[in-house]
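Fold tokens
===========
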Amino acid sequence: MNDTSQSQAGASGSRSCTGQVTAGPGGAMTDEVGVITGDLTLTTSLEGDGLAHSRIQYTDADEWYTLTGSPQPLPGAGLQALHEQTLKAVRSGGAAQVPPT
């Protein structure tokens, strides 16, 4: 699977980045179901509470899960940078979580 990432701005001013990634050995840790592995889709969004929320799913599945470590304050480097760092963490595996800001 080729990793892809895209950014979007919603009509309400919310912003999000979405990318596809294959989890490395040990997968990604979620709050709801523990570790997930394989081909995944990650969305990182800045929501009305002012926090960055990272959600992950098996690609093309209906269910979304909270990636452990989310939500968190938006880092100074911005939403896209946080999203790219999180994709990198998931790509590395090891029960990946949202990197601390």
In short: The chain has one helix and eight strands. The beta strands are 4-9, 15-22, 28-30, 34-36, 39-46, 51-58, 65-66, 72-73. The first strand starts at residue 4 and ends at 9.
